[in-house]
Design brief:
Keywords: Coiled coil. The protein has 118 residues and is an all-alpha fold. The chain contains one helix and no strands. It has one domain. The N and C termini lie far apart (169 Å).
Length: 118
């Protein structure tokens, strides 16, 4: 009976040792998993920073493109304004010329009327 008790105690000790080993293995896995999740979160930070940098670069390019478009449009507006001024100046010259021709024609018509009425 003593022998049976000794064997039962040895079996219990072995199972206890086995359970401890299993516990240590599981605890090691858990800690490794926590480490991976911490590393994953630390790894995601550079990824997020890279994504942020890429987004900022995209916004900078878009801003530069918009600034170039604005400058181009400003030049077009200035050119259109200059063309308008040039057309206005040409129209003034034409109107002055037409007024002179009108005055000459009225003078000729006046002379013709005077010649006919004589």
């Amino acid at each position: 009976m003593m022998r049976e008790k000794e064997e039962a105690l040895k079996a219990k000790d072995l199972s206890t040792i086995e359970m401890r080993q299993t516990f240590e293995v599981l605890r090691g896995r858990l800690r490794a998993g926590e480490g991976r999740s911490v590393n994953a979160s630390n790894g995601s930070l550079p990824f997020l920073m890279q994504m942020q940098s890429a987004r900022m670069l995209m916004f900078d390019r878009e801003r530069d493109s918009m600034l170039q478009s604005i400058k181009k449009l400003q030049k077009e507006v200035e050119r259109a304004g200059q063309e308008k001024e040039q057309h206005d100046a040409e129209m003034r010259v034409l109107l002055v010329e037409m007024d002179r021709q009108k005055a000459r024609m009225e003078e000729k018509i006046g002379r013709l009327k005077a010649a006919i009425s004589d």
